[in-house]
Amino acid sequence: APLQRSRAATDDSPAARIALITTSIVFLALFLFAPLAVVFSEALSKGFATFAVSFSDPDAQAAIQLTLLIAATAVPANLVFGLAASWAIAKFSFPGKSLLVTLIDLPFSVSPVISGLVYVLLFGAQSALGPWLKSHGVEILFAVPGIVLATIFVTFPFVARELIPLMQDQGTGDEEAAISL
Known about the structure:
Blueprint: H1 14-43, H2 48-53, H3 58-91, H4 97-109, H5 112-123, H6 130-135, H7 144-170, H8 175-180
Helix pairs in contact: 3-7, 4-7
């Protein structure tokens, strides 16, 4: 059989390039920009003044404050723990390394509904921890700590998964450990 010449990714025909670019733009328009346009058009349907006044509503202010609080808590926590986990995984070989990698990837494989159920089973009133938490006045479920925990759980893998390959490429750690991932 004759040897087949491999093509570079940019050797596609102009028609194929146009079709791919058009498909990408249509997809972005339908699934990203169209919902954004609907949200903004509905928000501004009664005029900009009404939209601006809605920010003075106490519920809106509480929601914005809660969002900023959760972000101000979850982002630094993810940064610290994600950096530590990435460093440990990329630079060292240790017992339990594969377990740590599995725990980092867990939020990608577990449905958010199941994660919520686990939080209810761990911290709910009928859980093993529930009576102890209640007797000590600690509220986790349906309170700020629960929201922070859920947000950290869902977003944690993004920091670690971005940093692990970067640290492995630096090549100053355990080369054999980097290859095993």
